[in-house]
Amino acid sequence: MDKLEKPLEAWREELSETQFHVCRLGGTERAFSGEYHDSKTPGIYHCACCGTALFDSHAKFDSGSGWPSYFQPLSKDAITSLDDFSHGMHRIEVKCGKCDAHLGHVFPDGPAPTGLRYCINSVALKLVPREA
User: Fold this and answer.
1) Which residues form the active site (predicted)?
2) Is residue 98, in this structure, part of any structural domain at all?
3) What is the percent of the chain where pLDDT is above 70?
4) Staple 66 to which of 32, 39, 49, 98, CB 3.0 to 4.6 Å?
5) Could you give the number of structural domains in the chain?
6) Is 23 a known ligand-binding residue?
């Protein structure tokens, strides 16, 4: 996947304040505050920054964490992951594979078939509903 590179100031102009804080500065929205944490609408979740398709609603589950959670990304290239040692702990950060937007973190406590829980900030996503 070709990388989308853009200066931080250009992102600041295009995104809401909350999206910029989360997606470009690595922030987190409050639990249970996001638009998609309890959404059951079928569709594809895209990156709010660049539009890359990231997660299918078929992989979404209620983790009880307060953030939308998925057991797998749409494709292996859709996301990248890296070690995150912030806040005095080790976690695996998840970023958009195209624009490097911070999406959230992945944990090894999800359901079958992967056993993973991609815990993603709603503000980093844009749901495109499936047509009926």
Assistant:
1) 119
2) yes
3) 99
4) 32
5) 1
6) no
